[in-house]
Write a structure and sequence with these properties.
two-stranded parallel sheet; 10 strands; single chain
Length: 217
Amino acid sequence: MISKARILRTLPLLAAAIAALLLAACQKPTEEAASGGEPKSAEAVKPPASQTPEPLPADDSKPIPAPAGAADTPELRIATFDGKTYDLSEHRGRWVVVNFWATWCAPCIKEMPELSALDTMREHIDVVGLAYEEIDKADMQAFLKKHPVSYPIAIVDVADPPKAFDTPKGLPMTYLIGPDGKVAEKFLGPVDAKKLEDAIAKAGDAKAEPAAPAAKS
């Protein structure tokens, strides 16, 4: 039979062993986090990837067939940032460049000066910019003051984008609308004046002229 004195002598050792086990259990989450395992707390968990389209690099620009989900003759009536209303149907007889973009998209910003020059210099071409993002009017005003353009800008409700156009999977995304109001071509990725005017010339528009040199930023 184990004596009382012996039991008392073993208690400190047992307590030390239990303490060591508890300490190891507390340190385990830290070790897992350091090795790529689960983080220690919910605060460290990253939220799910957003549905915001990614900016596309310059070498990804390419024309693609008119989207099946978009209307053959899309309608667009939207309030612009200057307080006016842009109605795509009022631009029949002219080529229209509908450019989906965002202020956080570097390739979008890079193409803006050239789109602005195209809108100004080509009488048969109009451009409209659709800002696909959640942004305050004050922030947009500050952005456009720094990056002015000649064409109208509208802020798109990302929760309710224009139904006649596909929801952007990447930015910039540009539609070329023909004088008949139909989608002639769609570009996923950055565009420039040459790509747009080449597409217009390919469609057989006699008014298309060689593209002007790219604007320097």
